[in-house]
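WARN  no MSA supplied for this record, continuing single-sequence
INFO  ligand: zinc ion
INFO  echoing inputs
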Amino acid sequence: MSPSLPTVHGMGLAPVPYLFGGEQHGRGITIPDNFYKTGVWVRKRVEILERDNHECQRCKDAGGYSKGNVVHHIKHLEDRPDLALDDDNLMTVCEACHNALHPERMRTPEASKRRQITPERW
Ligand SMILES: [Zn+2]
Ligand SMILES: [Zn+2]
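INFO  complex generated
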């Protein structure tokens, strides 16, 4: 993992619960269904891609190189919504690695269409 410290960036980012309208449940924070379309995420994603030089960190750990274009939540959003925008919980990966990191999503597109119980949250 990168040695970067968990910094708070001067982007005027409010704590996550407030970013998302502050809807509180028992566990604290609810990530909206359109999380991946929110401005805060779009900006954060670019930030992480740039931090990681658009390089897949998983391939890199394995001694290889792949261009990465997916920002993955190391602790999944559903489990740790409070880490949704935490730099240390985000890593750039390639699509192949991302699929490997989400065995639950390893279905053919057709199959996943039929399994629409779980919305696309990764
Ligand atoms: Zn990879
Ligand atoms: Zn992911």
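Residues 72-73, 98, 101-102, 122 surround zinc ion (ligand 2) (CB under 6 Å).
INFO  checksum written, moving to next record
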